[in-house]
Specification:
491 residues, alpha/beta, five-stranded parallel β-sheet, three-stranded antiparallel β-sheet, 20 helices, 47% helix, 12% strand, globular
Length: 491
C-alpha cells in the first residue's frame, strides 16, 4: 500500500485530535501568533514534538499538563518550539550594508557628544543578529570603542533560544555566509565535547560583553506594562533606543497587532533613531507614526518629524579580509557517526523540494543539524537532480564535520547547475580551508566570473540575501589574499 505524503498525514493528525482546536486557540491568544491560524499541520507538528517529550497521546492531555503543576515551564518549552526561527550572522546583506554605510555612522555622529548607543534586537532568536551588530559596531568605532557606552539588548519569547544565545557558540550553519578569515577573526574554534560532538565556533569575549539578553513577548508592548528590561539593564536603558531591529517577527501577528506593535516600537525610539523590520514587512500604514527612509535594497523608519537628509552611502570595504598566508586548519578527528534516526522519523521522500528545504532549514536553525541532515538524506531520494538540495546537503555536512561528503555534495550541485554561484563560492571556501589553494582559486574565480556577469544588485539564489556585487567583492578579496588571480577586476 502506498504511504501518503508526510504533509498529508500531519494535516490528518491535526483533524483527528479533538483537543487540538482548543489548544490552538490558547496558543494564539497567549503568543499572538496568528501566523498559525491557517497552518494547522505546521502547528500540530510542533505540538506533536512536545507530546512525545511529555509522554502524552493527545492535545486534551497536553492542555491538562499546561494548566497543571509545571505548566509554566511547559508553556516556555512549547513557545520555544513554535517560535524558533531562522537566524545566522549578517542575515540580509542589504540591511547590514545600510547599517554599516548609513544608519550606524549617522547615529555615531549624532551621539558623539554623549557617546552612548542603545540598540534593541527584538525577536533575536539564538543571538546571531545582536552579535552581528556588536561585531559591526566594534569595527566602526575602532579604537574609540572604550570611550563609548554601547548596550545591545536581545529579547525573545523562547527561553531555549535565549540560553543558546548566552552561550554564544555556533556551528558552521549559523556562520554559513562568512568566510574562514572572518570566522578566525571573530570566533575561536571549540573542540568536540559531549553535547557538541562536532565542535563549534565561540564568539570572542570582546563582542559577547556588548550584548545582554532578556525574555519578552512583544504583545507586552500593547497589552501590558512597559517592556521589562530586567534588573541588569533597566536602569541604564529606560525605554528609549537609538536603533531597534524587529525583523521577521511581525509575520507571526495579525494586522491589528502589527500596527500597534510598530507604533509602540516607534514610541521607544530616541529622536533621530532608526527602526528596521523584515524585508517583507513594510506597510504604508506605518507612515502614520514613522517616516519611511528608502535606502539601497531596503526601507528603514525614523520617528515622525525627523529631518531626512539625502546622504550617499559610505563606500563599503569587503567583509572578507585577506586570507592569512600561513593559515593551517585546526586538526580534526574523523567525524563521529551520525546517530540512526528514531523509529518515528517522518517519511519525506514525497515532499516538494521547497517544503523539504523549509523543514530542513528550520531544523538546522534550531540547532538540530544531525536531524536536518538525516531528513534531507531521506528526502533527496528520487530528487537527486535538484541542485539546491545537494547544496544544502553540502552545508549540513560541513556543519557535521564531514568535509569529504560536503565536497561531493557541492560538486554534485555544480554538476547539475554550472551557474550555481553560491555552490562555487562555498566549494572555494571549503577547499581553501583544506589548503588546496589551486582548486580553491578556480572555484572562487568561477564564483567571481558568474557574479560579475549579473546586475550588481541581483540577490543570489540560496545566498541568504547576498548580492552579486557583495559576493564578487568577497571572492576578489579572497583570491587576492591567496595570491591567486585578483582576476577579472572590472574594467
Amino acid at each position: 500500500m502506498t504511504r501518503p505524503p508526510d504533509r498529508v498525514r500531519r494535516a490528518a493528525g491535526a483533524v483527528a485530535d479533538p483537543g487540538f482546536p482548543a489548544l490552538k486557540e490558547r496558543v494564539i491568544a497567549r503568543t499572538g501568533h496568528s501566523y498559525y491560524v491557517d497552518k494547522d499541520d505546521l502547528l500540530h507538528d510542533r505540538v506533536r514534538r512536545r507530546l512525545k517529550a511529555c509522554g502524552l497521546h493527545d492535545c486534551t492531555a497536553y492542555l491538562a499538563r499546561l494548566d497543571g503543576p509545571g505548566g509554566r515551564d511547559e508553556w516556555a518549552a512549547l513557545e520555544a518550539e513554535i517560535t524558533i526561527g531562522e537566524t545566522f550572522f549578517f542575515r540580509y546583506a542589504e540591511q547590514f550594508a545600510a547599517l554599516r554605510g548609513r544608519i550606524l555612522p549617522d547615529l555615531i555622529a549624532a551621539r558623539g557628544d554623549v557617546r552612548t548607543l542603545r540598540v534593541w534586537s527584538a525577536g533575536c532568536s539564538t543571538g546571531a543578529e545582536p552579535y552581528s551588530l556588536a561585531i559591526l559596531l566594534h569595527e566602526l568605532l575602532g579604537e574609540a570603542l572604550p570611550e563609548w557606552s554601547v548596550t545591545i539588548l536581545g529579547t525573545d519569547l523562547s527561553v531555549e533560544a535565549l540560553a543558546t544565545a548566552r552561550e554564544a557558540e555556533f556551528g558552521p550553519w549559523a556562520l554559513r555566509t562568512l568566510g574562514e578569515p572572518e570566522r578566525l577573526r571573530w570566533f575561536r574554534r571549540v573542540p568536540a565535547r559531549p553535547g557538541r560532538p562536532h565542535g563549534a565556533y565561540a564568539l570572542r569575549p570582546v563582542y559577547r560583553r556588548m550584548v545582554r539578553f532578556e525574555r519578552q513577548n512583544l504583545l507586552s508592548l500593547i497589552d501590558g506594562p512597559q517592556p521589562s528590561m530586567g534588573t541588569t539593564l533597566g536602569a541604564n536603558l529606560g525605554s528609549n533606543f537609538d536603533l531597534i531591529l524587529c525583523r521577521n517577527v511581525l509575520i507571526y501577528f495579525n494586522a491589528e497587532h502589527v500596527n500597534r506593535i510598530v507604533r509602540a516600537l516607534g514610541e521607544r525610539l530616541q529622536p533621530g533613531g532608526w527602526l528596521l523590520i523584515g524585508h517583507a514587512e513594510p506597510n504604508p500604514a506605518f507612515a502614520q507614526w514613522l517616516e519611511p527612509v528608502t535606502l539601497p535594497g531596503t526601507v528603514a523608519y525614523r520617528p515622525a518629524g525627523t529631518e531626512v537628509v539625502a546622504q550617499a552611502q559610505a563606500p563599503l570595504p569587503p567583509w572578507v579580509p585577506e586570507m592569512p598566508p600561513a593559515f593551517v586548519p585546526p586538526p580534526r578527528a574523523g567525524p563521529p557517526p551520525i546517530p540512526p534516526p528514531p523509529p518515528t522519523a517522518p517519511a519525506v521522500a514525497t515532499a516538494e523540494p521547497d517544503d523539504l528545504l523549509r523543514e530542513v532549514r528550520n531544523l538546522a536553525d534550531a540547532g538540530e543539524t544531525a536531524q536536518a541532515w538525516r531528513l534531507l538524506q531521506e528526502g533527496i531520494g528520487g530528487r537527486g537532480t535538484e541542485p539546491a538540495l545537494r547544496y544544502y546537503e553540502g552545508l549540513l555536512a560541513l556543519d557535521l564535520g564531514r568535509e569529504a561528503e560536503a565536497e561531493r555534495a557541492l560538486r554534485g550541485a555544480l554538476f547539475l547547475d554550472r551557474g550555481f554561484v553560491m555552490a562555487h563560492y562555498q566549494l572555494g571556501l571549503l577547499l581553501a580551508r583544506g589548503r588546496r589553494r589551486g582548486q580553491a582559486a578556480r572555484a572562487l574565480d568561477n564564483a567571481l566570473r558568474l557574479a560579475q556577469g549579473l546586475p550588481p544588485e541581483t540577490i543570489l539564489p540560496e545566498g541568504d540575501g547576498v548580492s552579486a556585487q557583495r559576493l564578487a567583492e568577497n571572492a576578489r578579496a579572497l583570491l587576492s589574499g591567496m595570491g591567486g588571480p585578483s582576476a577579472r577586476d572590472p574594467a
